[in-house]
Automatic annotation (TrEMBL):
Its EC number is 1.1.1.44. It comes from the Bacteria. Pfam families: 6PGD (PF00393), NAD_binding_2 (PF03446). This is 6-phosphogluconate dehydrogenase, decarboxylating. NADP(+) binds at G17, L18, A19, V20, M21, G22, N41, R42, S43, V82, K83, A84, N110. It comes from Microbacterium barkeri. The active site is at K190 (proton donor), E197 (proton donor). The gene is gnd. SMART domains: 6PGD (SM01350). The lineage of its organism: Bacteria, Bacillati, Actinomycetota, Actinomycetes, Micrococcales.
């Protein structure tokens, strides 16, 4: 008889791709009771290095896909943490060859959700489950507890749910993970999360810029302002780290670090995806769009150098009431932040309708309370709003947020006016206010746009006083108008 003790142990979860995110996630998994983790990387050296540096993790190393599959208990469950695109497709193809029906392949990268829909459909035909899971929190979150947004089948969630709950961040006793929906729902929600992140960061940057230019305060002094803000309704991870960034002094020059960092911000694609998808869905996400465009503008120094000769206001911008101005900026920041989240949740709701996903918006807000970049105190308020009214058409109209917008709108307008008069770009502040005024308007100039479209292209229009679709026979001198009911 074979001694049972000689039977190799099997892992309940495996990780493919051991760069920083993958290795940190593997370590997180291994640190949780009940998990045994198999690890595989195309380059053997990374596997050897991880196993050697963390013997306490008890990793089961594999050096081929066959070994990796053999090291996993059934249903085999593997999380892919490799570069999005072709590398992900290559790993999926390799796993499909060694996995069996009922096994689970999880893509934990920042995949574009249509790719996830395509992959899930293809893998499903083999009987294997494919899950696209958004994982937020960066390197630290992967190691200590991320916010996780998995899609996939109900069957896969039975096995995967307990594993992901074991490693997720925890907020008020609840793990920051939920089964978002089927096929691409998880990566869709993660995409919008990142879009909101773009807007939030841009708004904070504009607040800093306005305070610095308007008051003459140093970055360290503005850090104190942000630290104070973090004690109130703006409490969030991004406000917290902004204070830390502004306090940092460059060791080489002795200058504030923010002053020696090149003012060109890149983007990895999720912001653009959020905007492109919103356009396709017909959902206005102007705050996210302007934040994305602001990064694009910053990344064209050759154009900015030429345009520097264009005229602006003659007088230097300085405010008389420093404390009052800072309070105005705080209120404008909070109001604009509400709009960013409201627009983001609009897009999630529209995406769910378009792709037949059942997404609990309140549950989404709850899993963003810890572990992710946009974690913030007021996410509980969003959860409360959707708990009270699950079909809430506009998040900004929920009582808590409507009251905050009512309270802050005067300050918001003063800030946008001041920025405009001073020639200080504030695209996220300005577009958020314009959206606010647009969404609450009783009548918009779109009526004129429809008239123009009918004039040059016979696109037709509808009327406020009767049913049907109409076209006007516009004459050359526009004096003879005949309406046709084309209904």
């Amino acid at each position: 008889m074979t001694d049972a003790s000689s039977t190799p142990a099997l892992a309940n979860i495996g990780v493919v791709g051991l760069a920083v995110m993958g290795s940190n996630l593997a370590r997180n998994l291994a640190s949780r009771e009940g998990n045994t983790v198999a690890v595989y990387n195309r380059s053997r050296s990374k596997t050897d290095e991880l196993v050697a540096e963390h013997p306490e993790a008890g990793f089961i190393p594999a050096f081929s896909y066959e070994e990796f599959a053999a090291s996993l208990s059934k249903p085999r469950t593997a999380i892919i943490m490799v570069k999005a695109g072709r590398p992900t497709d290559a790993v999926i193809d390799s796993l499909v060859e060694v996995f069996e029906p009922g096994d689970i392949i999880v893509d934990g990268g920042n995949a574009y959700f249509p790719d996830t829909i395509r992959r899930e459909k293809a893998v499903r035909e083999t009987g294997i489950n494919f899950v696209g899971a958004g994982i937020s929190g960066g390197e630290e979150g992967a190691l200590t507890g991320p916010s996780i947004m998995p899609g996939g089948s109900d069957e896969s969630w039975v096995t995967l749910g307990p594993i992901l709950k074991s490693i997720a961040a925890v907020a008020e006793g609840e793990p920051c993970v939920t089964h978002v929906g089927h096929d691409g729902a998880g990566h869709f929600v993660k995409m919008v999360h990142n879009g909101i992140e773009y807007a939030d960061m841009q708004l904070i940057a504009e607040a800093y810029d306005l305070i610095r230019r308007g008051t003459g305060k140093t970055p360290a002094e503005i850090a104190d302002v942000f630290a104070e803000w973090n004690k109130g309704e703006l409490e969030s991870y991004l406000i917290e780290i902004t204070a830390e960034v502004l306090r940092q002094v460059d060791a080489e020059t002795g200058k504030p670090l923010v002053d020696v960092i090149l003012d060109q911000a890149g983007a990895k694609g999720t912001g653009a995806w959020t905007v492109q998808t919103a356009l396709a869905l017909g959902v206005p996400v102007s705050g996210i769009a302007e934040a994305t465009f602001a990064r694009s503008l910053s990344s064209h120094p050759e154009q900015r150098a030429v345009a520097a000769s264009l005229p602006g206001p003659d007088e230097e911008f300085r405010v008389d009431d420093v404390d009052g101005f800072i309070e105005d900026v705080r209120q404008a920041l909070f109001a604009s932040k509400i709009i960013a989240y409201s627009q983001g949740f609009d897009e999630i709701r529209a995406g769910a309708a378009e792709y037949n996903w059942t997404i609990d918006l309140g549950a989404v807000s709850k899993i963003w309370r810890a572990g992710c970049i946009i974690r913030a105190q007021f996410l509980n308020r969003i959860a409360d709003a959707y708990a009270e009214q699950p079909d809430l058409p506009v998040l900004a109209t929920a009582p808590y947020f409507a009251e905050a917008l009512t309270r802050g709108q005067a300050a918001w307008r003063r800030v946008v006016v001041a920025a405009t008069q001073a020639g200080i770009p504030s695209p996220a502040f300005s577009s958020s206010l314009a959206y606010y005024d647009g969404i609450r308007a009783e009548r918009l100039p779109a009526a004129l746009v429809q008239g123009q479209r009918d004039f040059f292209g016979a696109h037709t229009y509808k009327r406020i006083d009767k049913e049907g679709t109409f076209h006007t026979q516009w004459s050359g001198d526009r004096t003879e108008i005949e309406a046709e009911d084309t209904h």
